[in-house]
Amino acid sequence: MSELPHVIWDMGGILYPYFTERMLNIGFERGWPIDRVPLGPTGSVFDADYQRMLEGDLNEPEYLAIVKDRLLREGIEFDPPADLADGWEFRPESWETIDTINRLGHRQALLTNDATTWLGEAWWGRWDRADSFDAIVDVVEVGARKPAPEPYLAAATALGAPPGECLFVDDLPVNCRGAEAVGMSSHLFDITDPYGSSVSLIAALHRA
């Protein structure tokens, strides 16, 4: 690892709350049976399918379809990409960390599997936080999803750095393992503890 490692960020769940976090709040407001419907890592019911996604047995589109089907079985029609299109709020702990890392002199990139699903095609051209990053890579332009090697290598190339000089941040263990497979270091971001995850990331950069 170089003296000033480059940081490559995942997006969903880290820069923004995960979609099930927002659905949980909506469920409380609308009276959904959230005491029996699993809704991700912050729901009141254990979500075995979310755990399967963490380990790579499901990808996010497959998990999204499962969540929609769960609600349909309860008589609730809800399409997260459409019904959550407005009202996204940034996760403040992550953005404070991004600002800190920029001040420390580390270059940063964004590498996302599913932002196009949530933000629309070519979202990076109109995204109001794009200038916080030196590079943005959406896998729709790469042709392969994390944890395949191509997205990580594309992000490193966009930063003009070898993979061994990059620290990758993701909330899915399977994607962290994909980064490590191409020679990057990784930092697992726990979306149930964004403050602790941010603090430990800064500590990891100081140790690098």
What is the structure about, briefly put?
With 208 residues, the chain is α/β, with parallel strands linked by helices.
Rg over CA atoms, rounded to whole Å, is 17 Å
- H-E string: EHHHHHEHEHEHEH
Number of domains: 2
Largest sheet, if any? 5 strands, parallel
The secondary-structure class comes to alpha/beta
- What's the helical proportion of residues? 40-55%
Mean pLDDT: 94
Shape by Cα distribution:
globular
CATH homologous superfamily identity of the largest domain: HAD superfamily/HAD-like
Total helical segments: 9
**In the CATH classification, which architecture of the largest domain applies?**
3-Layer(aba) Sandwich
Q: Total strand count, please?
A: 5
Strand content: 5-15%
The rounded distance between the terminal residues' Cα atoms is 6 Å
The parts where pLDDT drops under 50 for at least 5 residues are none
In order across it, which strands form the biggest sheet?
3-2-1-4-5
Task: Please give the CATH class of the largest domain.
Answer: Alpha Beta
CATH topology name of the largest domain, in short, is Rossmann fold
